Every structure is written in structure tokens, then in C-alpha cells.
Amino acid sequence: MDLQIHPSWKQELEKEFDKEYFKDLIKFVKEEYTSSICYPKGNQIFNAFDHCPFEEVKVVILGQDPYHGVGQANGLCFSVNDGVTMPPSLINIFKEIETDLGIPFPQTGNLEHWAAQGVLLLNATLTVRAHQAGSHQKKGWETFTDSVISTLSRKRKNIIFLLWGGYAKKKGAKIDTTKHHILTSGHPSPLSANRGYWFGNTHFSQTNELLRSMGKKEIKW
């Protein structure tokens, strides 16, 4: 199958695309998109990779599922399209950035400008059926995104992984901590944030401090 994904990633993940589980996954996804409304749009499923080539990844943020509301998901975790109301988790992310770095609350929740600077905004599951959270879990996407993380861990060094919440932390088992940096905290969802597990984690200033110490360009959050 000819996958529309950035050439740099295609090269790194080629063997994965040939595996049986991935062929079954793509078959399932095609059937779902034909029979039901699913998100994100078909041409945005691999957006995280298309906006952030393999060799340019400096930071990885891990999400779980794409947003399942109308017009929200755009293939980048936590991000929404321009003009779309920001979900609560994204609002809490921007609140933390405001407190941490003094950056004013933005007008849009579209995080493409983060991706363009080397932030891989990766969901563990890349598709979802409309209004049915988790509907495409355990179909193969998690195996694929585990491979993405393992490949980055193995072939690159000094990437900063931001793992928010229990689910993302479990994915962290694939990361070689002798070569990479991991920052963990609670999830930015209201449930976790309101219990004191999110606000004050200063992950955005810490990330920029680490990038500075490595002689890399800071992220303009």
C-alpha cells in the first residue's frame, strides 16, 4: 500500500508498513471511513509526521486519541483547527504556558506552529469514530506508535519527551533514558488538572532550558 506520509518517516517505518498487523489496521481504517464518520480527515491521519520530519524532531508530546467532535481533530495531538472552540485540555495547556512563560493566551488552538519547530504531536491512536471516544483503540495503532517511539529512541538522541498522564507514561517504557530526556506530569484534562497534577509542571520552560543547554533553538510556544 502506498502511504501518504512524509518521505523521512516513510524511510524509517517502511518495515512496519509491510507487517500483517499494519495491513489489517489500514483495512479496518478504510472500512470505518467508508461506513462511518471518522476523524481526522483521511488526508490528515499522518499530519503529525508530515509537519515534523524525522530528523527535525526535538520534542515529542504524546496524546491518546484524536478529538471525536465535529471539525476538531487535525492529526496533531491536543490541536484543533482554526476557528474551533478549544477543548478543556488544550485550554489548560495554554493556561500553564501563560503562567510558566508569560505568553498571552492565544487566539487559536491550532498547534501547527509547534510542529513546524520540531514538536512531534503524536496521538497513540491516529483515528476515531465520530462521538465515540476510543473507538479505534486496540486495532493496531498503538503497536504502530510504539514503533515510532522506539525508532526515535534508537536512532536519535537528546529528544525531550513530555509524558502527561498515566497512559503517556506507559508509552515511556519504549524510551532509552540514557540518550533522551523525559518530563512527566499529570494530564491537562480538567479531572487531573483540578486535582493539582498538571498546573505548575513548568514543562515548557524546562523544555526550552534543555534545548538551550544542547545549543538548540528554543520552541516558541
From TrEMBL:
Keywords: Cytoplasm, DNA damage, DNA repair, Glycosidase, Hydrolase
Catalytic activity: Hydrolyzes single-stranded DNA or mismatched double-stranded DNA and polynucleotides, releasing free uracil
Protein name: Uracil-DNA glycosylase
Active site: D65 (proton acceptor)
Similarity annotation: Belongs to the uracil-DNA glycosylase (UDG) superfamily. UNG family.
InterPro entries in alphabetical order: UDG_fam1, Ura-DNA_Glyclase_AS, Uracil-DNA_glycosylase-like, Uracil-DNA_glycosylase-like_sf
Stored PROSITE patterns: U_DNA_GLYCOSYLASE
Chain's role: Excises uracil residues from the DNA which can arise as a result of misincorporation of dUMP residues by DNA polymerase or due to deamination of cytosine.
Residues in coiled coil: none
Uracil-DNA glycosylase-like domain location: 50-211
Subcellular location: Cytoplasm
Highest taxon of source: Bacteria
A GO molecular-function annotation: uracil DNA N-glycosylase activity
Organism: Dokdonia ponticola
EC number(s) recorded for this UniProt protein: 3.2.2.27
Main location: cytoplasm
